[in-house]
Amino acid sequence: MTPMSAPVSSDRPFLNRRLAPFGTTIFAEMSALAVRTGSINLGQGFPDTDGPAQIAEAASRAVLTGLGNQYPPGPGVPELRTAITAHQQRFYGLGYDPDTEVLVTAGATEAIAASLLALLEPGDEVIALEPFYDSYAACIAMAGATRVPVTLRPRGGTFALDLDELRAAVTPRTRLLLLNTPHNPTGTVLTPDELTAIAALAVERDLLVVTDEVYEHLVFEGSHTPLAGFPGMRGRTVTISSAGKTFSFTGWKVGWLTAPPELVSAVRSAKQFLTYVSSGPFQYAIAEALQLPDTYYEAFRADLAAKRDILADGLASAGFEVFRPQGTYFITTDITPLGEKDGLAFCRALPEHCGVVAIPNQVFYDDKSAGATQVRWAFCKKTHVLEEAVDRLRRL
């Protein structure tokens, strides 16, 4: 018998050419570097503690009593869909129908992928705020659409959106705006005035909008305002969030989107051929989590705000220019004051210098030069871990 071998019919690479530019994610590379060097990993954005014990117990109870162990309903279990609509009403005064205007997904990542695959066609343009989470670029590419970045630029200690630049980026081919607020990696939170202008532009140019709002409960100054609540936006906006960031169970991969029935139906058509369904028992647990009292959300936000300040102050004392975030659990710094110019090289060398891992922001840019000297740090870690990281960074 002839040994099995990979079929080779031409010089064409195995990987789809749309995905060829992406390769292994920077998160995988830097996390592996953290393990290999025994460094503190402030790169990948996951907490080093679990969420509320009562929610973990709810998941255990669901498994042991047979809730969700078989395929859950395609749109998500009714208990979770109802809890999601109650959450949107409770915090934002937005009313949704749990039966027709909610879709549960395998994390926000699948919600983004399914939305873009469903709503885009080759030739469409998508405007995304740069720097952007790396899955945005990959999903736009898989849909065959064209990515048009609008860059958030450092100004006054934060990163700001130029509304004129946003307006100028819209062309007759623009189909969709992809927004992320609170924004990863810069920590910027779009203001009500900015959102008002974005909404007016979307209505004027008849654009769809997909909003990634996974850090909605991590706004340290001010508050989060969903774009869907602005005039003319509810019927054209897909609002995405997830349980991972709010309840510190990132491995459960429970996400969701809310939108009018026509948009939910379109996204569900794509989603059913991705994971079909997922996270059955965890859906029941997150339904309980969304009903936690305001004191949970307040304590969660206060804890992360204190950790932000520990790391931000430590980075400043180590010589970095620090952009103190308004939201999320990431801090962006500039390495220029340290005499450095290449964030990627800096991050690859950092573990050997002081035993800490971070992420170079340039991987989140199309214009690599715009983010060449920026580095992102995650502060969703135990306090003593952050304090140890700060001590190590002083070696710089």
General description of the model:
With 396 residues, this protein is α/β, with parallel strands linked by helices. Helices cover 39% and strands 16% of the residues. It is built from 13 helices and 15 strands. It has helices spanning 26-37, 53-64, 78-92, 107-119, 134-142, 163-169, 192-204, 243-247, 261-271, 280-289, 294-317, 343-354, 383-393, and strands at residues 40-41, 102-105, 125-130, 146-151, 153-155, 158-160, 174-180, 208-212, 237-242, 255-258, 321-323, 330-334, 356-357, 359-360, 374-378. The chain has a 7-stranded mixed sheet, sandwiched between helices. A hairpin with a 2-residue loop joins strand 5 (153-155) and strand 6 (158-160). Helix 4 crosses helix 9. The longest helix is centred in the last third of the chain and has 24 residues, at 294-317. The mean pLDDT is 95.
Topology diagram in text:
Layout (H helix, E strand, L loop, with lengths): L25 H12 L2 E2 L11 H12 L13 H15 L9 E4 L1 H13 L5 E6 L3 H9 L3 E6 L1 E3 L2 E3 L2 H7 L4 E7 L11 H13 L3 E5 L24 E6 H5 L7 E4 L2 H11 L8 H10 L4 H24 L3 E3 L6 E5 L8 H12 L1 E2 L1 E2 L13 E5 L4 H11 L3
Helix pairs in contact: 1-12, 2-10, 3-10, 4-5, 4-9, 11-13
What is the succession of H and E elements? HEHHEHEHEEEHEHEEHEHHHEEHEEEH
Count of extended strands: 15
Structural class, by secondary structure, is: alpha/beta
- Cα radius of gyration in angstroms: 21 Å
What is the share of helical residues?
A: 25-40%
The best one-word shape is globular
Biggest sheet record: 7 strands, mixed
